[in-house]
Amino acid sequence: MREAGHGPERAQSPAGASEEDDTLATIPAAPAAPAASPAAPPAAATPDASERARALLVPVADQRAAAPAPDVAPVLPGVPAAARPRVQAPSGEPADETGPPCPWCEVGNRPDRHFCRRCGMSLAERPGVSEARRPWWRRMWESGDRPAPWAGERPKLRRGIGRAFTWIAYGLALALVIYGAFNVGTAWNAARDHFTKRAQITPDSVAASRSFGGHPPKALFDKISNSWWGPGISQSADGEWIEAHFKEPTRLLDILITSGISTKASDLSEAALPHRMDAIITTADGKTTTRRITLDQVSGPQQRKFRAQNVVSVRFVIRSAFNVAADKQVSIAEIEFFTRATTSGT
């Protein structure tokens, strides 16, 4: 009987030893384990004190609480669910580049960029705003460098009479360029004749179909306005002529013709005045050109343009006259030729 009562006292002896240990009293105790079975062997119910203290120092419950939660949410078995994609609308995000915003996604771009650094759209276009049509001379050579149309947009077709007019315009432009290339010398001389200074030139010799006594044909070129030439016949003197000759080929620019017997208005009624005359121009190569000169019934010199080059002779043929009468003859007081002045540097 004594030995049976001593068994339980030895099983409770470790608890009494822990109460007497001061170091173990400061360590937080873990949840108590269930009591050992009375039928367990005495050696297994009494662990070493150092091993028990080491087991009490490891907070098993805290390690489980600090474990990270799983990233994947639990799903039902056999039904996997993929993560849904996040939809992000275009918005103006703070950019590291300063400049005008893109008209499509509102992201800032440097001024030297031609395409947006985010969406890749052209920065020269704006949605909803039509581009201004450029002139035809800028679009002529860019037929193969046009931007591609947008998806769903049909390009404009150019066919029919509109395209024919385009090719006709191109042909006319090409013809003008070729004509200008072959006549550039004529255009240059015309410009020089317009801006150059004039100088009077006197013919080397003069001839006439007939002359009135005391009024020879050289009186037309003596630079005196009160002397005159007349054919010596009445009425219109149709077909009568006077001719001036030049020894050297001369370029003529203008002529001055003074009708009547003087420059005074009171002398206009004294003689018939030339109205229409033919100017027959002969050049150094033997070719002749006829020009029609029409004069007014006024006193004083009348200037007319007379552009001709390499001239060796000019014949004036009377065709009609003003103030015709049986006792009057056609009279011309002065004819003056003008050429380029040598002092103009041309």
From TrEMBL:
Entries under InterPro entries matching the protein? Galactose-bd-like_sf, NADase_transloc
Q: Where is this region: Disordered?
A: 1-56
**Species this protein is from:** Streptomyces fildesensis
- Classification via Gene3D superfamilies: Galactose-binding domain-like (2.60.120.260)
What name does the UniProt record give this protein?
NADase-type glycan-binding domain-containing protein
Chain intervals with Low complexity compositional bias: 25-48
Q: Where are the transmembrane segments?
A: 164-182
Arranged from A to Z, the UniProt key words for this protein are: Membrane, Transmembrane, Transmembrane helix
